[in-house]
Design a protein that fits this description.
Layout: H1 4-24, H2 30-34, H3 37-58, H4 60-70, H5 73-89, H6 95-107
């Protein structure tokens, strides 16, 4: 079960996604290419951080895989480059969706919750 903190973060993230989707609904990932590199890397880091937050509450092995995959320092920058390239290749999709799909390809799917 997600902690109250994780639920709050998730709610904020969804609200941001919805607000950005109303502004950029017609171009999905194309708007991302107009952002400067610092903003692009921040979006990638924030998205990875969100997946880590959720994984920490749902699947510790998945969380460790994401941490190992993303890394720090040069490894982190290298992984961001891979993700940024994938986002450029898949502009018909939301950048966050591309990031999540890549993480799931590397580390496996997030557990589904009934409800």
């Amino acid at each position: 079960m997600l902690s109250e903190f994780a639920k709050s973060i998730s709610t904020i993230y969804v609200a941001l996604l919805i607000s950005s989707s109303t502004s950029f609904a017609e171009d999905k990932g194309a708007y991302f290419q107009k952002l400067d590199e610092t903003a692009q890397r921040a979006l990638v880091s924030n998205s990875v951080g969100m997946t880590l937050t959720i994984a920490s509450e749902t699947d510790k092995n998945l969380m460790r895989c994401i941490v190992d995959w993303y890394g720090t320092g040069e490894k982190k920058r290298s992984q961001q480059n891979v993700v940024l390239d994938l986002i450029r290749q898949h502009q018909d999709f939301w950048p966050e969706s591309v990031i999540l799909a890549h993480i799931q390809k590397i580390c496996g799917k997030f557990p589904s919750r009934g409800g």
